[in-house]
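Kindly inspect what follows.
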Amino acid sequence: RAALPGLALALLCLLRAGAEVPVQPDFSAEKFAEIWYVTATASNCSIFLKMKDGMKSSMAIISFTSEGDLALKLDKCQKFELLFQQSGQAGHYIGTSAQEKRDLLVMETNHSHYAVLHEAQHSKTEPSTVLQFLTREQDVSPQLLQKFMELIPTMGLTEDMLAVLPKLGECPKGTGCL
């Protein structure tokens, strides 16, 4: 019983933290579409944490359906596609499956060089947060990478949850790259 008020407070803090994730104010789906490189990722997901040291960059191909939904295709050694429905707010998209709900927000982008995506995965077994740094080119400026790294603690993540991904290259046989 004594733990219930603390648990309720913790849940309120989580909800409040989720509500404070900013979305790019002048987000343009038309300018955002096309090819991006996943340059760095930070996450508290246990699967990511186990695999992060062996990961390589991937190419993210972003397109939008006629209904305004966001289609994300990751292409490298492992290929998969995700579809996120628009939420009614530009730059905020929702993905759902039987196991989880995902909120994808474009936190920051200049549309032509970089983007920061925030994804909250609301899973019954393991809720998690993913922060991704996307760039139009594989080479990234140290200043932009530093700016991304400064966002990590503001999203409840720590630096040890960060993977700065090597450039695209050949995948070693029998391994996966995300």
The helical segments are 3-19, 29-32, 46-51, 142-151.
